[in-house]
Amino acid sequence: MNSTGVLDAGSLFAGDIRAYFAPVDRGTGTPMAFDAASMGRFNLDTPPAGWIDAGVVSSVKRDTGESWKAVWSGAPAMVKSQGRSKVEEIVEVLLPGWTRLAVALSAGTQTMNLLKTAVDANSNPSGGAGAGADVVGSGATSTVLQLGSTTAVQAGDVVVVDVDYAGTTGYVGTGVAGAYVATVPEIPDVDFVRRVSFNVARVLSVDAGVVTLASTLPAGVPDPGMKVSVVVGFVDRNGGSFAQEWSALFVVDGFQGDRLILHYPRLQPAGEGAAENASEIAKGVARWRPVARMRALPVVDAVDGVGAVCFRSYLPAAMRRV
Predict the structure, then answer these.
(1) How do the residues of the chain divide into helix, strand and coil, expressed in percent and rounded to 5?
(2) For 39-72, how does the pLDDT look when each residue is reduced to its tens digit (9 = 90+)?
(3) Could you read off the pLDDT of 259-296 as tens digits, one per residue?
(4) Which residues contact 38 (CB under 8 A, 6 or more apart)?
(5) Are residues 132 and 223 in the same domain?
(6) Domain that holds residue 165
């Protein structure tokens, strides 16, 4: 701090990188809203509506490639000017753990919930026929489900809450589009939407058919007609052409009160398939984490009509020299 009481400019000293993701509206291509001027100081534990907290990420690698080229002329040749040849950015993120969101970000393609299977179900790599689903009764909230006293759901289960598949085409999945159906399958699976849905949560307790969830359902209060299936895990496959698209925020808080935000309105997979990172933390013990590699796609800035793939915002600490 100088004699005027203003903090001298200097490096940003910070700890963790927090990551947040939100689905891009696949029907319209509209990214999730974010305005660093009005929303940039949000509480890290309570992100803006629609954004999912992905936790602390170990690293964010940004590869912008070659974007400026020199324009030469004369003899001998001399640089006269520069011009942009391309605008591209690849983002690679080492995610903290294996959540439904992390599996999808790492896979880059369609991911599915492994539904609890029926006793006599035939084996299938992405899960056999589901064991059945409970109808969500009236009075449900985003954290409490009314299922009735005969439910098979137990405390500790993971559940998915979504509609039956009724043979429709287009994007499916409530809140987050989990798949695109181009043509109606010859043998429709009534559980298909629940297989691809991101509307999942852990069960905290069950009391006479009243199911209390450990976290809020991403899609909010269940719509009438939604059903609940038990999920035993998640699966992705290297195949298919569905490309998940996300908006992303990477936030670094400085120890002196400043904040750095990397805002990517549109990210799509850029890898060659699902990726993991295994690092040895002790002899015979490795830590396995999913890796997401994504390509930034452009949006048009309404301020001046310029296309951009990333917005980097710096919010200075109080009384810092600017």
Answers:
(1) 5, 45, 50
(2) 999 999 999 999 999 999 988 998 887 677 788 8
(3) 999 999 999 988 777 888 888 889 999 989 999 999 99
(4) none
(5) yes
(6) 113-236
